[in-house]
Specification:
The complex is a heterodimer of chains A (493) and B (125).
Chain A lengths: L5 H19 L2 H29 L2 E4 L10 E4 L1 H28 L5 H20 L3 H20 L5 H31 L4 H7 L7 H18 L7 H8 L2 H27 L1 H7 L2 H21 L4 H22 L2 H32 L10 H4 L1 H15 L5 H15 L3 H26 L15 H19 L4 H12 L5
Chain B lengths: L2 H7 L1 H19 L3 H23 L20 H31 L4 H9 L6
Helix pairs in contact in B: 2-3, 3-4
Classes of the chains: A mainly alpha (493), B mainly alpha (125).
């Protein structure tokens, strides 16, 4: 009975938790509700993913109104996978936030943090679960507005400016998206994604549909921080509270990648995207520039958090690179990297948050000799850093492997070489941390010996363990990604 | 159809696009945080028109199911835009709130002055 309502409960529980935390006003109670809601969503997402894997797509009709009139939640292998990633990261970050947020925010604002946290998680999950284009816009704005607030809660006054810039660019992105949806609605008369896809053939070369594709591409690319639309990201990630950076870096841009995949392959279709318009070529060029330029910029950052923020822009480039191939291997790589990069960045930002707690911030001058004063944190960053590079035995290797396979499959050997060579730049920026933490004598700004509290260290190490685990057992990640890729290319579920 | 006739029959779209481009231009070209938000608001408002105008039929009534009423306007775009207006109001309110906080922290709402203040080492940890 309740099991039948899981597709909507996974979104509604965090959504309801938000006003409850607001009414409770007590930091401890608010935290408990938020953490419980996230844990519930994670459990529900796992059940749903198992259900979808066993029995195929699940459709839920809100208020029993049949689609295309009512809003439909439709889960297939692709978005069930995204739900698991988002709710999983949210459930891991929530216990971490207990100490981290208490240290970074004034006590009277803590319960508001959890209200926004629940709203943000609900928005992201809703975007992944819904099968309705306009409902997706509403969830996009719920997630975005709450993340602007979360970023503005950062201690530094520059967090305010970062939140403002993100608000302006994010709103332009969302508005572009809604213009695109409006044009599609004018042409097809429906907002249900599956119904839209069914009505589009025959209209595919009309100008409004082509304009809709362009608007949605630009709008979603702004949100997922594709070069050159990534300018909001480094400041936002650097100045946001640690828990917020970990949540957003691991989930927000990934859900937008999912939206792009959904529109490209489920709504517009392969032919329109790859043949009528040169989307693969555009994505390929932008991805290559993103990977190269953001990796190089990351090398010169004086702050570890900012370094990993630029690295995120580069890693998103790898994901879009996989999309640009538009082949089974390429899409598999994109979906796997979406997940693997999510957990890798969650691990890194959670650990960096621990350093920020002990040292004030994660500038490189404070990292000297950190291998001795915070050994567990340091070794965790090194392991997650190896996953970022793509060393065999870590999750990052799996995604790079499929990316190289995809490049070879499409006959572009130079692209395989490019992936390997740019990974070397990642080696260089991770090495900067190793050099500071292990090969430098402690400076006067290095924190005194002592780890961050266990309530922060354990969630972070859970994410690190996931980075290693998914480097060996790929049946869940790669298995799901291959089925999702087959689904997107229309080869059946 | 003549060019002028084509223009006149699509006049609501022309208004929409002029507002859209003007709003976006203000957001990009102005350095004042308040003016940027005004531009953003104009930009969002143009989208409301984009949705609502095609839903209107000349001579159409409200969607009443009765034999006397044959032509009616589609109510769905109005409902959608009601939601979008709420989103727009929330965005504007949050943007203004952040602008107020920026004014308190930096003493200015001019983008170049704020960036200059941070460059001069106004770092606060």
């Amino acid at each position: 009975m309740t099991l039948a309502h899981l597709p909507v409960l996974v979104v509604v529980v965090p959504l309801i938790a938000a006003p409850v935390t607001l009414l409770l006003r007590r930091p401890g109670a608010a935290w408990g509700i938020a953490a419980a809601a996230c844990a519930f969503s994670f459990a529900a997402a796992l059940l749903l993913a198992a259900e979808v894997a066993a029995r195929g797509p699940v459709s839920y009709q809100i208020g029993s109104w049949p689609p295309p009139w009512g809003i439909e939640y439709r889960l297939d292998v692709l978005n069930a996978f995204v739900l698991v990633l988002v709710s999983g990261v949210a459930a891991v970050v929530a216990p971490y936030a207990w100490r981290s947020v208490a240290a970074e925010l004034p006590r009277d604002q803590v319960y508001l943090f959890y209200t926004m946290y629940c709203l943000c998680v609900a928005g992201l999950l809703g975007m992944a679960a819904t099968g309705d284009a306009f409902n997706l816009f509403v969830f996009m704005e719920i997630a975005s507005l709450s993340s602007y607030v979360l970023i503005a809660l950062g201690r530094d006054r520059r967090a305010l400016l970062a939140a403002y810039q993100y608000l302006i660019l994010g709103t332009i992105g969302a508005t572009f998206y809604v213009i695109g949806v409006g044009l599609l609605y004018l042409m097809t008369g429906t907002l249900n994604l599956a119904d839209m896809a069914a009505r589009l053939p025959g209209l595919q070369t009309t100008r409004p549909v082509l304009a809709a594709l362009a608007f949605i591409t630009v709008g979603v690319s702004l949100k997922l921080a594709l070069f050159p639309l990534h300018l909001w990201l480094p400041n936002a990630y650097t100045h946001a509270p640690s828990a917020v950076t970990a949540l957003l870096a691991a989930t927000a841009t990934k859900v937008q990648v999912y939206v792009l995949l959904r529109f490209y392959f489920s709504v517009f279709g392969l032919q329109l995207v790859t043949e009528t318009l040169p989307m693969p070529e555009i994505l390929l060029a932008l991805s290559l520039i993103a990977i190269l330029s953001a990796s190089l910029v990351a090398l010169w950052q004086a702050d570890l958090k900012r370094l990993f923020a630029y690295s995120s822009v580069a890693q998103i480039g790898y994901i879009t690179l996989g999309i640009s191939m538009a082949t089974k291997e390429g899409l598999t790589a994109a979906v796997v990297h979406l997940f693997n990069h999510g957990i890798t960045k969650a691990a890194l930002f959670l650990l960096v948050g621990g350093i920020a707690l002990r040292a004030g911030r994660a500038g490189f001058d404070r990292l000297r000799g950190l291998g001795h004063s915070m050994p567990l944190t340091s070794i965790g960053i090194v392991i997650a850093g190896l996953s970022l590079i793509g060393v065999p035995g870590t999750a990052g290797f799996i995604s790079k492997w499929y990316l190289v396979l995809g490049a070879i499959e499409t006959g572009r050997w130079w692209l395989a070489g490019f992936v390997v060579v740019t990974s070397l730049i990642a080696v260089a920026y991770v090495w900067r941390f190793v050099e500071a933490a292990y090969l430098s004598a402690p400076g006067k700004r290095t924190p005194a010996p002592g780890e961050s509290p266990p309530v922060m260290l354990v969630p972070a190490w859970l994410a690190v363990a996931a980075c290693v685990y998914f480097g060996f057992d790929t049946s869940f990640t790669v298995g799901t990604a291959r089925r999702a890729a087959a689904l997107m290319l229309g080869e059946g579920p | 159809m003549s060019v002028a006739g084509h223009f006149a029959s699509h006049y609501s779209y022309w208004i929409t696009f002029v507002l859209m481009v003007a709003g976006l231009y203000i957001v990009i070209a102005r350095g004042n945080l308040m003016k940027k938000l005004i531009g953003l608001s104009i930009f969002q408002t143009s989208v409301y028109l984009l949705y609502i105008a095609p839903g209107k039929l000349i001579g159409g009534t409200a969607p009443i199911v009765a034999p006397a009423f044959k032509v009616y306007s589609n109510p769905l775009p109005h409902v959608l835009i009601l939601t979008a207006i709420v989103v727009g109001v929330a965005t504007l309110a949050l943007g203004l709130a952040i602008a107020v906080r920026i004014r308190e922290a930096y003493g200015s709402i001019e983008e170049d002055e704020i960036l200059a203040a941070d460059r001069d080492g106004g770092e606060r940890v």
